[in-house]
Design a protein that fits this description.
It contains seven helices and 13 strands. The N and C termini lie far apart (102 Å). The protein has a six-stranded mixed β-sheet with strand order 2-13-12-4-7-9. Strands 1-3-11-10 form a four-stranded antiparallel β-sheet, with no helix packed on it. The protein has a three-stranded antiparallel β-sheet with strand order 5-6-8, with helices on one face. Strand 10 and strand 11 form a beta hairpin. The protein is α+β, with helices and mostly antiparallel strands. It has two domains: 44 residues; 184 residues, Immunoglobulin-like, CATH 2.60.40.1930.
Length: 273
């Protein structure tokens, strides 16, 4: 037999038998490693007490898109925990302008740019933010518009009061455009561990990859977190027009002019009749 040939060859070379002391030691070592691995997996499973997901990981923007809602749901391992959710859109540089009266008209006379500004920002929580977390924890995790880390450019040329005024104007403008939530959306528990929340996205939501962070809090401190990605993308004719406008602006401008000329000529011909 071929298997017997292998065994006889090992003995001829002086290899120890699997029943000897060295083989027994190897068997115990392997068993210990397997037990350690299973113990580590079980420990990680117990530590992963927060589980959350979205009803959809893609928001498709079409020509008929008028906004949508996305359901977030999940569970905690033990009752009594608080949950907070933060949704951030792609970061961008944003310029905030200030108008002043110059004679009879109002003109933009000053401005301050901020970097790392989320294009979209929404918060949901199972209770008032000041009741489920300490101010330091809210600031550390960036939970709530008051705790957003908005970095001003050329800050050394501005006083803290000026930076604060521009920062407040930036948030106010985003809230008017419905891109920043002015209120914390509720997270409702179903029983003691299951929770759910509905996140609203307006019709003008910017495309890109969105970060959805879910926090589990106990005694006003984050004890667990989970992050997932939500994609907002233009599809169909809307996507093609968007791509042409971004990648071929000259062609897009020429096509717009031709369409405007044709529309004007058609309207003129109709009204002449």
């Amino acid at each position: 037999m071929r298997g017997g040939w292998r065994r006889s060859t090992a003995k001829a070379r002086g290899a120890p038998s699997s029943n000897g002391p060295i083989g027994l030691c190897r068997g115990r070592t392997l068993a210990a490693l397997i037990a350690l691995w299973f113990g580590t997996v079980a420990s990680d499973a117990r530590a992963a007490g927060l589980v959350a997901d979205l009803s959809s990981h893609l928001i498709a923007i079409t020509t008929a898109f008028s906004g949508t809602d996305v359901l977030l749901f999940g569970a905690t391992d033990e009752p009594g925990a608080a949950v907070a959710v933060v949704i951030r859109g792609p970061a961008e540089e944003t310029l905030v302008r200030r108008k002043s009266r110059v004679g009879p008209v109002w003109l933009n006379t000053d401005g301050l740019a901020f970097e790392g500004v989320p294009s979209f920002y929404a918060v949901a929580a199972s209770g008032p933010l000041e009741e489920i977390a300490t101010p330091d924890e809210l600031r550390r995790q960036g939970i709530g518009v008051d705790h957003l880390d908005l970095v001003p450019l050329e800050a050394e040329k501005r006083t803290p009061g000026e930076i604060g005024a521009f920062r407040a104007a930036l948030i106010r403008n985003k809230q008017k455009a419905e891109l920043y939530s002015s209120e914390v959306a509720p997270i409702r528990f179903i029983g003691q561990s299951l929770f759910r929340s509905t996140i609203a996205f307006p019709a003008n939501v910017p495309p890109g990859n969105y970060q959805v962070q879910v926090f589990e809090l106990r005694d006003k401190v984050v004890v667990g977190a989970q992050r997932t990605v939500l994609i907002v993308s233009k599809v169909g004719v809307e996507a093609e027009i968007f791509d042409v406008a971004r990648n071929r602006p000259a062609l897009y401008g020429l096509a717009s002019i031709l369409i405007a000329v044709c529309a004007g000529w058609t309207a003129s011909a109709v009204f002449k009749k």
